[in-house]
Amino acid sequence: MTTADSPDTGAVDEARRREAVRLLEARHYGQAIAIFEEVLREQQEEHPAELQTIRTANFLAKALFQSGQAARAAEVQERVLLETMGAVGDRHPSALVARYNLILYLRGLGHWTAALGEARELVSIMRGGYDPGPLGLDDALAVLAATLRRSGDRAGAEPVDRELVELCVGLEGPESRAVLRATSNLALGLHQRGERVEALALISEARRGARATLDRRDRLRRDIVHNWWMIRSKVPVREVPFRGVGE
């Protein structure tokens, strides 16, 4: 029971964690990491397998990654994933988020084989059913397609992008941000493979939707218009970088 002499350690931990998140958002990485590490050490001693402890470790990995310590971030996140699966299973939202974050950190290290393995596993898990949470099958497909593209497997990314477009149309409508983003990335991949006619048709469709629904200052709209101009102008891919959207 909590008393005046025995403060609620959970509430104290949450307050310290919030302060560390504030520091992280302000890019004071060293201070944020120090607080996360201190809170995590204390939580691991008292209740190592609880979700609050796992949540703190997630934040620590994020802070490490944003500070440029990708290898340490991936190491921490891999432990987070294992501990989360041990506590709540691999279909729980916390486990799905942990795996998703691990994919991003592995990509940051250029560990493409490992990143692709985790991305394919995430899609496989979510196809089989999962507990509702912040991630959906669309997020899993998007991170798989992006990882395939970044690893150089444009042919492998194409069917995933096509499925993602179809899924997002069904979930959110034909002119939603998710559909515009997915359509632009599909067009980008097709153009990079030399399939310009279909790429131009798709990017033109995305451009029309972006101009009709998004503010001209919106980053997504600007990226789509940029890619439309690049494909329409027949600029060789090797000469000017395209803007993969939402990756």
Query: What do we call the CATH homologous superfamily of the domain at 136-247?
Result: Tetratricopeptide repeat domain
N- and C-termini, Cα separation: 46 Å
Shape: elongated
Instruction: Tell me what portion of residues adopts beta-strand conformation.
Output: under 5%
CATH-derived topology of the domain at 136-247: Serine Threonine Protein Phosphatase 5, Tetratricopeptide repeat
Q: Biggest sheet, open or closed, and with what strands and sense?
A: none
Whole-angstrom Rg: 21 Å
Give the overall pLDDT as a whole number.
88
Assign the CATH class of the domain at 136-247: Mainly Alpha
Q: Report the total helices.
A: 11
Low-confidence parts: 1-8, 238-244
Secondary-structure arrangement, i.e. CATH architecture of the domain at 136-247: Alpha Horseshoe
Number of beta-strand segments: 0
Structure description:
With about 250 residues, the chain is mainly α. The protein has a domain at about 135-245: Tetratricopeptide repeat domain (Serine Threonine Protein Phosphatase 5, Tetratricopeptide repeat, Alpha Horseshoe), CATH 1.25.40. It has eleven helices and no strands. α1 (about 10-25) runs antiparallel to α2 (about 30-45), α4 (about 70-90) packs antiparallel against α5 (about 95-110) and α5 (about 95-110) runs antiparallel to α6 (about 110-125). The longest helix is centred in the N-terminal third of the chain and has 19 residues, at about 70-90. The N and C termini lie far apart (about 45 Å). Mean pLDDT is about 90; it is low at about 1-10 and about 240-245.
